[in-house]
Write a structure and sequence with these properties.
6-stranded antiparallel beta sheet; mainly beta; globular; about 150 residues; 4-stranded antiparallel beta sheet
Length: about 150
């Protein structure tokens, strides 16, 4: 029997999201996993207007294949929009949510089917884009990230 998807957070994610500096999140379904790890938010860079104010890595495990991205860069305000859009997807208000980090272009995508399943797919690049993993797996239950 398939299990429900689950999300685990480490760090002060729910209580202090507007000023979050360090955290990680893991989406797990069966033996498949998508993780955002080593997350750091450089508040002073954001306040100075630098859109490269977050650093993290993406880790994927999909049907026995795995990848760890090169260092990813992103804008914190855009990350908050992405999480809001992901919540809309889970609440059946949106069909697809795309996420593409600024560094090497790793890009997970989340697509709902309208009946509670979410396809997690994408492409993760390693250092210098010399390695990559294209992945896809389905989750059985919608879950909230935050």
């Amino acid at each position: 029997m398939r299990q429900k998807a689950s999300i685990e957070y480490r760090g002060d994610v729910k209580e202090n999201f507007d000023r979050l500096e360090k955290a990680s999140a893991t989406l797990t379904f069966d033996d498949n996993k998508l993780e955002l790890i080593d997350f750091e938010h450089y508040v002073s860079d954001e306040e100075a207007g630098n859109p490269y104010n977050c650093y993290f890595r993406i880790k994927a495990l999909s049907d026995g294949f795995s990848a760890l991205s090169a260092g990813c860069e992103y804008d914190y305000k855009a990350l908050k929009r992405f999480i809001k859009e992901l919540d809309e997807l889970i609440d059946f208000k949106r069909e697809t949510v795309h996420f593409e980090e600024y560094g090497y272009g790793s890009k997970p995508t989340f697509s709902g089917d309208g009946i509670g399943h979410i396809k997690v797919s994408g492409l993760i690049y390693g250092e210098y884009r010399s390695q990559s993993l294209q992945f896809e797996f389905m989750t059985d239950q919608p879950v909230k990230w935050i």
